[in-house]
Amino acid sequence: MFTESTFVFIALGAIFAYSFYAVLVAGQLSLGQAGFASIAGFTAASLAPSPDDVGDLPALLIAIVIGMAVGALTAVVLGLPTMRLRGVFLAIATLAFAEAIRILIINMDWTGGAQGMSVPKVVEPWMAWVILAVVAYWFWRQANSRYGRALEAIREDELAARAMGIDVGGHRLSAFVTAGTLAGLYGVLWAYFVRLLAPEDFGFSKAIDGLVTAVVGGSTAFFGPLLGSVFLEMVPEVQRAIGIEAGWIRPFLAGLLMLLVILFLPGGIASLLPRRSRKLVAATAAADAGGLSQRAHPATGETVVKLVGLGKDYGGVHANKDINLHVTGGEVIGLIGPNGAGKTTLVNMISGLARSTSGTAEVLGLQPGKAAVHKIAAAGVSRTFQHSKLFARLSALENVMVGGHLVSKPTFLRRLLWLPSARHDERQLMVHAAACLERVGLTDKAGTKASALSYGDQRRLEIARALASDPSLLILDEPAAGMNHVEADALSDLISSLAQDGLTILLIEHNVGMVMKTCSRIVVLNFGQVIATGTPDEIANNPAVVEAYLGSSESEDAS
Ligand SMILES: Nc1ncnc2c1ncn2[C@@H]1O[C@H](COP(=O)(O)OP(=O)(O)OP(=O)(O)O)[C@@H](O)[C@H]1O
After folding, report:
1. Which of 84, 313, 412, 540 could lock onto 147 through a cystine, CB 3.0 to 4.6 A?
2. pTM for this model (two decimals)
3. Which residue ranges does the record assign to the ABC transporter domain (predicted)?
4. ipTM for the complex shown
């Protein structure tokens, strides 16, 4: 039932859909791919030698190289100013770019204007499928690499990814350039197959077609775009077989399917197929002898955090005011205070997620606010969040592997070449992650999706993920929330054992009993200011603390 051109269109449709998949895996919605494809197609068709002079395949290969280079370069130029945009704003900006390119091409002489350009037909079905196989292979090898996991982490929670030491801007730009390169490849293949390169072929509907193919097939599994393309290209064939020739049915069905997939099947058709779960290596966690943890922690007495007159205003609200704090190596500092006292704001400034409005901060030799969040993380700061910021659709083990981003080596390029060292490094990271899971008692949940864990387990998983980067300063924001007394006691023991390993710990906690038991020093905040600092005994007997604290939320705080 399939004609030769159906085979080619399936392959081309899948390649184009991969250019959407490339950014969707990182949670970006770009609609500029038709623009990349057209600019690459027209440039390659004008510059590449004629097949009559050099032969079909050499001519095509030269055109492909030109097209991919043009696509990549255009993506860099467009990506640099737009990568800060999120969600619908990036979609609108990239769509505007594609439209501008289309108008430009229509009005240029060298492109043949609205008539377009005729191009020799050299693409054979086997060529299209070989190229598709290479593209699919690329994404297959990307999926379980350190780079691939980082992109997924960005998609799931950008802020948490930053805090795990991932350079979000760099990763987003590289994904965008991959999209541009693939769209360029598609533009050239399209031109050298359909013979006529017309600006109208690269309008809004083309962008939607690519997006629908990627989303319907599934944007979280590497074979999704291929499935989507097979499915959508089959529609006209099935129509022809049953004698319904109406041309509107395919685009109508594509739109309808997109709607249904978004509503009822967010993982696309690919999610209907059974997925091989990763082989867990929890049993070998004990093999993490030293593992990836090699950081020399600051010695006792050495400065870890130094805050001088630090303040943060939100409009008229002084979330923090004139905070002075000196934390040294190996200390376990409790940060307590009533709701809204400014505890989270303070640790956000220390980890670089919030900028101070006054004063200075030095953390492990860097100045948060001036240094990027991922650089602060690389210096040895790791944290959990008050409201869980796990990578919801990744397994517990994968969450912790992302946490190990900073201490593991890049594996993607070596995975492409199938080098054994990449396999070794991935395994070492997995063993390290399994050891972190074991430390918080989550070994048996390694394969469970983060979103399916109980609240208490999610808190524990955040700690395991934070530990995976081998931090010198660990910030725990209400880690015992949702835990019972037994679990909170176990957590307290864990914190003490981490301190014995040389970690410095900042603990925000409403469970005052646990703070008293665990911390060597306690800092009390109220209305954004430090009202007391001292040992647990000193704090328990400080009248200002008793008044501020017990006066406000006795029942909760005494828990
Ligand atoms: N992004 C923001 N925009 C405006 N105001 C904010 C913002 N973040 C915090 N605040 C305000 O700053 C103050 C301190 O908030 P913060 O969350 O740091 O307190 P907290 O001690 O961590 O409280 P809780 O124990 O309830 O988490 C509060 O008045 C809060 O409303």
Report:
1. 412
2. 0.90
3. 305-552
4. 0.95
